[in-house]
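From the methods appendix. Each design record in this collection lists the tokenized structure first, followed by the designed amino acid sequence. Records were kept in a plain field format so they could be parsed without special tools. The example shown here is representative of the layout used throughout.

RECORD:
FOLD TOKENS (314 positions):
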């Protein structure tokens, strides 16, 4: 049953990718169109999605769990950056791909794919914790994550504090911060505004899949499966990242908790589709991002069940 749930969740992803792929093959959508859609996601739909996702009743337990999620994922981010830096030297990874590799190793498809998988494997309580992880995750993705993509776009392996702080000034991070403030203050948006923002935010996943499909349509499948660094991304994201998360969970939270299990499972999700969107937005190596996202999404059908089973015995 668990394997079926994983496959069904992944099937939804691939179906939503098809329109963009077909439109590119028919020459009905251009690179300029793709860039415009990426801007709409970055400036409009994703901020709305994040804010409405955080519209939960305030609870000290939830806030305390947020602390653990942030601590663990910051740890994963730091370790991922160190590994990416090491790989730059060992396999001579281009500077334009270093930040993207670090992003893909840390930030996964925790919402659109992660939540359905958690529901199928562990039930509704796991989905609640998964949503909590996803919200906390967004805050990091739109701060540290965007800095990594901007760094890759500039072809740099280092970035000053001032430049890193500039990465925080973006609609997605501001939306995450606003959503967190509303949650802590216990403020619920009026139904008219909240439902409208929820409808706008729900467009994020299909639009993101459309953009990924357009980039996939411009890549030869042969090139995707012969990209050695993309396979390294798969190893790091699907196996190494959850292993790091598991170690940090054991050290910070302890073993035997559903919350800890959810954090590890969310770390085992394939690369976030938003990596392609942000690479498009900041003019980074979109082709490399697309290859990593697609390969991890395909191979996770094998690795997610393995991680889920292994967690029962660790």
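DESIGN:
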């Amino acid at each position: 049953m668990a394997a079926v749930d994983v496959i069904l969740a992944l099937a939804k992803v691939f179906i939503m990718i098809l329109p963009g792929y077909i439109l590119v093959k028919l020459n009905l959508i251009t690179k300029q169109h793709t860039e415009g859609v990426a801007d709409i996601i970055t400036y409009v739909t994703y901020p709305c999605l994040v804010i409405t996702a955080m519209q939960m009743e305030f609870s000290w337990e939830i806030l305390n769990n947020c602390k653990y999620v942030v601590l663990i994922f910051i740890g994963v981010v730091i370790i991922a950056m160190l590994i990416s830096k090491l790989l730059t030297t060992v396999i001579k990874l281009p500077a334009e791909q270093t930040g993207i590799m670090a992003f893909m190793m840390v930030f996964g498809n925790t919402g659109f794919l992660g939540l359905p998988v958690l529901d199928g494997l562990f039930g509704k309580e796991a989905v609640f914790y998964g949503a909590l992880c996803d919200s906390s995750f967004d805050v990091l993705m739109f701060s540290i994550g965007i800095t990594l993509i901007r760094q890759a776009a500039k072809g740099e392996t280092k970035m000053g504090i001032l430049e890193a702080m500039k990465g925080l000034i973006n609609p997605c991070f501001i939306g995450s911060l606003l959503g967190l403030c509303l949650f802590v203050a216990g403020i619920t948006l009026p139904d008219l505004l909240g439902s409208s923002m929820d409808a706008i935010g729900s467009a994020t996943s299909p639009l993101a899949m459309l953009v990924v499909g357009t980039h996939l349509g411009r890549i030869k499948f042969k090139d995707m499966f012969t990209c050695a660094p993309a396979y390294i991304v798969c190893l790091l994201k699907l196996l190494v990242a959850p292993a790091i998360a598991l170690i940090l969970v054991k050290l910070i939270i302890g073993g035997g908790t559903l919350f800890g299990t959810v954090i590890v499972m969310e770390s085992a999700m394939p690369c976030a589709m938003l990596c392609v969107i942000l690479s498009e937005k900041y003019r980074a190596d979109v082709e490399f991002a697309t290859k990593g996202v697609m390969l991890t999404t395909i191979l996770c059908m094998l690795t997610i069940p393995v991680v889920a089973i292994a967690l029962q015995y660790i």
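APPENDIX NOTE: The two ends are 21 Å apart (CA to CA).
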